Amino acid sequence: MLVDIVPIGDISAAVKREASAGLRSVYDCDVSVHSNQAIPEGAFDRSRNQYRAEQFIELASRIGRGEKNIGITEKDLYYRRRNYVFGLAYLNGNGSVISTYRLQTSTDGGITNKPAEEVLSDRVRKEVVHEIGHTLGLEHCDNNKCVMSFSPTVREVDVKEENLCGTCSRLVH
User: Fold this and answer.
1) What is the pLDDT of residues 116-134, one digit of tens each?
2) Average pLDDT over residues 1-28
3) Active site residue ranges
4) Does the annotation list 130 as a binding residue?
5) 29 labelled binding-site residue
6) Which of the 8 DSSP states describes residue 9?
7) What is the tens place of the pLDDT at every residue in 139-165?
8) 173 a known binding residue?
9) pLDDT digits (tens, 9 = 90+) for 74-83
């Protein structure tokens, strides 16, 4: 399987590296990194001062070269009535997206005492693995240590591990 990372806006080399490493370690897949793309036109919602996650998925799906494609952006994303999302994917789809906007620091209610850059690296790896898991048909897992557990706040992101639990792993392998 090839997963294409589609940077949308300015994404650091470190974030691209971490996303790639996380995907390869959990899914044993090939990973390519697309050229940087502009923010999708019309994605910004002035009333919310946020961006519509669906439009980033559509862009990643359309231009990505992989069987699975994941957009990565620094923009603050939302979906429907949710205040924000760390990422979004459609079950069994080929596109997904994560945002680093709310994954940035360790002083945000998370439960880690690592340096900020390590915190961001850990969270990026977990979120790309989580969203690609949805594209592979995995739903949210009840095991809070599983990377597929639902994480409405960074606290839950920090608690979960970077790997699939045994049940989720059997579903995709």
Assistant:
1) 778 899 999 999 999 999 9
2) 97
3) 131
4) yes
5) no
6) S
7) 999 999 999 999 998 989 999 999 999
8) no
9) 999 999 999 9
Q: Is the distance from CB of 52 to CB of 39 less than 8 angstroms?
A: no
How far apart (Å, rounded) are the C-alpha atoms in residues 132 and 68? 7
- Of 4 and 113, more confident: 4
Ligand-binding site membership of 146 (annotated): yes
Q: Any known ligand binding at 34?
A: no
Between CA 121 and CA 137 the distance in angstroms is 25
Instruction: Report how far Cα 45 is from the mean position of its chain's Cα atoms.
Output: 21
| Unique residue bearing structure tokens 């998370």 | 110
Q: 115 by DSSP, 3-state: which?
A: coil
CA atoms of 41 and 38, how far apart (whole Å)? 8
d(CA 87, CA 161): 17
Query: What SS3 state is found at 170?
Result: helix
> What are the angstrom distances between the C-alpha of 11 and each of 3, 144, 155?
17, 29, 24
